[in-house]
Amino acid sequence: MNVTTTATAPPERRASTIVMACVGVFVAYLPVTAVAVSLPAIQRALDTSTSQLSWVQDAFVLPMAALILTAGVFGDVHGRRKVFQAGLAFSAVGALVALCAQSIQVVWAGQALAGLGAAALLPTTLAMISHAVPDHRERGKFIGIWATALMASLALGSLLAGSILEHFAWRWIYLPSVAVALTALAVSVRVLPDSRAPGTRRLDWGGQLTAMLAITALVYGIIEGGATSFTDVKVMVALSTAAVSAVAFVMVERTSSSPMLDLTLFRSPAFTATTLIAMISFLGLIGFFFALSLYFGLVQNLTTLQGALRLVAISGVPLVLGAPVGQLMHRVSPRLLIPGGLLVTSGALLSLTSIGADTSYLSLTWRLALLGLGMALVVTPMTATAVSSVPFHQAGMAAAANNAFRQVGGALGPAVLGAILTTKAVNALPGHLTDAGLTPAAADRIASTADTDGLGAVAGLNLGADQGRVLGALSESFLDGLHLCLVIAAALSLLAAAVGAVLLRAPRHAAPPVAVAPRPEVQPQPHGV
Fold first, then answer.
1. In this structure, are 328 and 374 located in the same domain?
2. What are the pLDDT digits (tens) for 180-202?
3. Measured between alpha carbons, how far is 172 from 170 in angstroms, rounded to an integer?
4. pLDDT one-digit tens code per residue, 279-326
5. Are residues 140 and 255 in the same domain?
6. Transmembrane region positions (predicted)?
7. Cβ distance 458 to 470 under 8 Å?
8. What is the CATH number of the domain that holds 409?
C-alpha cells in the first residue's frame, strides 16, 4: 500500500476531503431543525405528551453524545473513510425508518439510528479537515467553512420541513435526509481519500460502556423527573446510576492503556474551556429551540413553514458569517470572540422575554438574528480552539470530545428546559383560567388534563363557548414557562462566557509538548475497494 504525507498530497485530494467533510456535517445536522419545527405536527398526528415529544429530539441526540468518542477512535484505528460512510448509511436508514413510522416509538427508533449516523460523521469530518490541513492557522478558515455547512443544514432543514408540511404528512420531512445521505455515500466511494491517526490506538470498551450508561441514565432521569417527580424511585435510580457510571468512566480512563478520552487533554485550559462552554451553552440553546417550536404552534398558531421562516433568522446569520469569522480568528483572539459571542447570545435571549402571543414577525426576527450573531461568534472559534489547543496527534480525539460534550448539553436542553417549561405552565394555568372567568371546577378539570396529558392536550379539547378563553389562558401560561426558560438559558450563556473569560486567558498547554511522527495517509483505491 502506497503512503503519502499531507504535505505532498495533491491539492485535489485535500479539496475533495474538505468538500466531503462539509457534506457530512450537512447530513448530520439536516434532521435537527427539520424535526424541531415539525414537533407540533408530530404531536397532533401521534397524540403525544410533552414528555414523549421531548424524547423525539433526545432519541437523536443521546446516541450522538454517547458514541461520538467511540466513532472518533474507530476512525483513527480503522480509517476515517469507513466510519464516514457508515455514518451516511446510518443517517439514511434512520431517516427511512422515521419516514415509515406510524407511532411515536418508531419515530424514536428512526431518530436513534440517525443520531448514530451523526455520531460517526461529526468527529470524522473534523478529523478529516485536521488531517488535510495540518497548519492550525490555515485550518481555522476551513473549520469556518465546515461551520457554514452546519448552519446551512439547520437553515435548509427548517425551510424544507415547512414547505413539505404545507402539502404532505409530517413523516415526509425525512425524505430529504434519505436522498442527500445516499447521494453523498455514492460520491464518497469515488472521491474520498482515507486517513488514520499515527501510532497505535484500540477501542476502549470499558470507557464506552460507562460513558454511554452515564449519559443515557442522566438524560432519562431528567426527562422522567420533570414529567413525574424527582423523588420517584425510577428517577432516583437513574440519576444514581448516572453518577456512579460517571465516576467509573473517570477511573477506567485513568487506568486504560488506550483511553477513549485521554484525561490529560484537560491539562490544556483552552480545551477545558471550550468543552465546558460547548456543554453549558448548548444546554440552554437547544432547550430554547425546543420551547420556541412549541411557542410557534401553541401560542402563535403558526404553520410549520411560518415557524421555519422565523428560525432561519437564527441559522441564517451564522451561515453568512461562518467563513468570515474563521478569517477573523487571525486578527481577534478566541478569548475575546467566544465570551463576546456568548454575551451577545445572552442579551438576545433576555430580549426575547418580552415576546407575547401577538409579537410581530419583524419584532421577533431581529431578536432571533441577534441570537444568530452570538452563535456565529462562538461556534467556529470554539471548535477551532478545541482542536488547536492539544498536540496534533490528539486533534481527532479533541474534536470528538468537544462534540460529545456539546451533544450532552444538547440532550439535556430539551429535558431540563422542557421540564421547567411544563411545570411552570401547568402551575400557572389554574390562575389564568380563573382570571379568564372560568369556574373553579372547570379550571381544575382543564389543569388536570394539562398535568396528565400535556399542554397540547388542552388545545385539543372541545370546550364550546369557553374555547377562546381557555386557549388564551393556555397561551399566557405557556408564556410564563417560556419566559422562565429564556432567563435560565441567558444565565447559562453568561456562565459559559465567565468560563471562557477565566480559562481562555491561561496558557494554552499545561502538558509538555509531544513529539509526533509524520502522519501516514492511505491512498484511495479504485472504486473504493
1. yes
2. 999 999 999 888 888 776 666 67
3. 5
4. 888 888 777 777 887 788 778 888 878 888 887 888 778 777 767 877
5. no
6. 18-42, 54-74, 86-108, 145-165, 171-193, 205-223, 235-252, 273-296, 308-329, 336-357, 369-392, 481-504
7. yes
8. 1.20.1250.20
* Domain tally, the chain: 2
Residue of 82, 417, 73, 89 whose CA lies nearest to 253:
73
- Identify whether 457 is part of a domain: no
Determine the pLDDT at residue 259: 83
Low-confidence ranges of the chain (pLDDT < 50): 1-9, 506-529
Provide the residue range defining the domain that includes 254. 205-259
In whole angstroms, how far apart are CA 278 and each of 129, 137, 212, 342, 478?
Answer: 20, 22, 19, 11, 28
Same structural domain for residues 316 and 216?
no
- Report in angstroms the alpha-carbon separations of 169 from 95, 174, 179: 15, 11, 18
In this structure, the answer to whether residues 137 and 217 fall within a common structural domain is: no
Full-prediction pTM beyond 0.70?
A: yes
Q: Which residue has the cell 374555547?
A: 467
Do residues 319 and 267 share a domain?
A: yes
Q: How far is CA 173 from CA 67, 410, 520, in A?
A: 25, 21, 41
Residue 520 inside a domain? The answer is no
Long-range contacts of 344-348 (CB under 8 A, 24+ apart): 344/370, 344/373, 344/374, 344/377, 345/281, 345/285, 345/371, 345/374, 345/375, 345/378, 345/490, 345/493, 346/374, 346/490, 346/491, 346/493, 346/494, 346/497, 347/374, 347/490, 348/373, 348/374
Tens of pLDDT, residues 467-523: 788 888 888 888 998 999 899 989 999 999 999 988 886 444 444 443 334 444 443
Q: Does 223 lie in the same domain as 184?
A: no
Distance (Å, rounded) from C-alpha 319 to C-alpha 296?
23
- Does 461 map to a domain? no
Q: For residues 130 and 392, what is the distance between their CA atoms, to the nearest angstrom?
A: 8
